[in-house]
Specification:
The complex is a heterodimer of chains A (about 325) and B (about 525). Chain A has about 325 residues and is mostly helical. Chain A has 13 helices and no strands. Chain A is about 80% helix and about 0% strand. In chain B, the strands form 5 sheets. In chain B, strands 1, 8, 9, 10, 11, 12, 13, 17, 18, 19 and 20 form an 11-stranded mixed sheet that branches. In chain B, strands 4-5-7-6 form a 4-stranded antiparallel sheet, covered by helices on one side. Classes of the chains: A mainly alpha (about 325), B alpha+beta (about 525).
Amino acid sequence: MLYLVRRSAALIVVLVGVSTISFALGVLAPGDPAELWLERALGRPPSDSQIQDQRLLMGLDRPLVAQYLTWLNGLRMGELGRSWGTGRSVFTELSEALPHTVLLAVATLTASIGVAIPLGVAAAARPGSLIDHGSRAAAVLGTSLPTFLLGYILMLLFGVQLRLLPVFGSGSASHLVLPTMTLGFGLAGMFTRVIRSNVLASLGEEYILAARARGVPTRLVLYRHALRASLIPFITIAGLSLGHLLSGAVIVEWIFSWPGLGKLGVDAIHNRDYPLIQGWVLFMSAVFAVSSLGADLAYRWLDPRVRLAKDGRA
Amino acid sequence: MIPCAIVLLAALSSACSERDPRPGDPDVVPGTPVPVEQQILRVGVGADRYLTELPSRPDLGKYPLNAGVFDTLVRMDERFQLEPMLAERWTYDRSTNTYRFMLRREVRFHDGVELTADDVKYTFDLIISSYPHNYEELGTESVRVADRYTVEVTPTNTNLRLVEQIAHPIWGINRQGSNPLKPVGTGPFRFSDYEKNTRFIVQRFDAYWAPTRLARARMLTFWFVSDQQARVLAAQGGQLDLVSDVPPPSVPVLERPDSPVQIIRSDIGSFDALNFNIHGREPFTFGSDPAVREAVGLAIDRTTVVQTAWGTTAEPSTTWIPPAVLGEHASRITAPAFSPDGARRVLDSAGWRVGPDGIRQKNGRRLSLAYSVTFPPSEHRTAPELIQRHLKEVGIETRIELMSDAGVSGARRRGGEYDIVHLTGSQNEPYPCFLPDLQYYSKSMAAPTRWTAPGGATDRAIEACRGAADIAEARRHSADAIHQLVDVEHILIPIAGLRRIWAAGRKVRGFVAHPSDTNQRWEAVHLVR
């Protein structure tokens, strides 16, 4: 319990720090949001007087501290401000985009785990085999290939050459496939290697030898005994990979016009939509921090040794 | 395994929803229009730039998408000429500074109600109040209904260019009292649906006032696809029928005989040019030296730059704005011809001596220009690098600053923190002085102009252009202003005239690409078998 309280307090400190930094970055970045807004609205460079009027309207004439405190006060009441690009509540913008990103993240995690488990186990069962080398090569390729490049390659292959899948948009299962493959390729490679090494380590344990000695079939030894023990550290990695999913989603959602949080963030940055950028950064940080905490807690719950060690009872 | 399963499922669903008839069908004649019910086109455009936060603003469906929902009183055709639309004719009375627009009869809005002068006044008043600073020569009292089919407009100051200015699609006529977020116009397409950042759908309006211009497509869906490459790939894959703004490097590949798409080019409608900061503060003062400006103009081989950076999608420019806008007066502007030796001579005469590293110096100061490049897509990286090389040949160093962010470039231009800025822009109005007025009129309200506008003869030419009795005379004055900027003062160095590039599926017909960013028409576009 104490651990949870301690971690939650640290989480709040992190979020306050993130909010301060994101606010500071927004206002210190070159360029005047009022001018940008006007140029977009008018389609031509605005005059000085127009810019001054717009600055007043946006509250940019007030001291930075006052702007920040207003924003924090709104935050306290659950209000993230209004988007300068659409005039709608930032919270509404984020909450409308969130389900799309969650869908993409869940699909990616599911697909990655679905690919990684059989591949990782098979590679561990036959170290040095073709499947082991192949999965290693795929993992290296997956983690080193830039996401956008992989996205274009998949578009070209499945969208243009084979004409099997749509290359942009959302709304059906087929729209989900290419973004999922793009985002999941590297992740599946990493998961495969983690499972492979964990299963391989487990296979040397005495309880595995005992199971084999009892005549338990190899398949059951691998999946019921070795894999189960290997999943505990894997859960932490899968939890932490949420960060990878969110950051990767920024590029993937942009190139596939997937209407999730990533595309929303890029659009907000392009439009210099400060309230939306601030809300977005805060929200993404919160998701990342909470998922890390969740992974830690799950790890402690699954493995009592960790709990005891951290509580100083080991 | 799971992705493979999804791919198979998707393939199956894609095959089931195949739209085109099978080639083996006996009644299929290649090249004939597909039946009306199948005339559904999918158009890929860039990011959604509508600002819907001001619900009173009657923008949706107008600029920048121009989806065919609205008609203006007059429009700008593909040759930058004025064409009567909802206004059949108009007169201007100089003594009262009043325009009279006589409206076409029997024009119906999409809800079936007839267009009247009240709708024009309603729309103009709404635009004027929505953009309080943009149309300072018009107030809500400027527009008056003379009778059911006649509108009078009296600008607050003399404005002889009003008719050319209201050709911009923002002046499309809305139905009086209609909800701007569910737009009702008189255009060849009626609004159907809009999903922010996703799509905009219009359907053919069967009661359109010009029977010869009835839309051939039953429905158009504009998809907002921000990524240029994704748009092109979607066209190649058959997910989109028509896509805008194809990146120039993709054009040669897409023009191969086996390509699934065709490339459609507009006439020249945009420009790419260098612009000197002539009133800069230290250290941005090189542009105040006429010899440096002239030498830069002479040192650049614009033919090589254009061929390398844009290939067949652009032409070397001398006139800065599209030559069609200037008509016969375009030849008045010659622009400096490529002459590295000429550039060296000019710099030598001005006291710029070649230093030990090949870069010229004068009074201990290196000739090193801050070269700011705004909004650089890929081709705008190639062009500055070539220009940099050409300038180095004559002893001018440039420090390229790529401004990928609109905020940064806007701040630099407003603050005059550059020696040369590399800009692109479009001729979006038939007003011949639209661009000189916007960028080089010293009394302009636009902040970046203070660093670039020379005043004097340029201002006089722009003012004469504003006051010209007809568009032919305005063209002459526009050519005078540009001649002053390009040939006399060397403040402006035209590099390229750019075309708008579209990619269309092989079964798309009737699409004529408009060179401007504003006046694209859609009624002729259709699909064939």
